[in-house]
Amino acid sequence: MRRDLTPEQYQVTRRKGTEPAFSGKYWDHHEDGVYTCVCCGTPLFDSKTKYDSGSGWPSFYAPVAEANIKTEEDNSYGMRRIEAMCNTCGAHLGHVFDDGPKPTRLRYCMNSASLDFEKK
Prior knowledge:
33% strand, Metal Binding Protein, Guanine Nucleotide Exchange Factor, Chain A, 6-stranded antiparallel beta sheet
């Protein structure tokens, strides 16, 4: 597994790291398709739910299927956040915030390093 990931992908997905804002390959990506887990290929987000949150990370208002994302409270670094993980393999994806657009009002703020993309 580790040999299949770049050092950045491993740091983000397995060590719960974060890539710098505006640095990932998908933060300003606009093709039609599905974003998948870089570790196991589970479909996570459809490009139709992607929007520009201004955060510098790929942001989505809903996953492809709620069952594909696992969440839990994250109190690291003195902050209270909700961590988002791949429900299939446990890869750290990013965090979920309640400041997103309608219809869900959620912002799944993901790391590009945790995602692959399958073009439609």
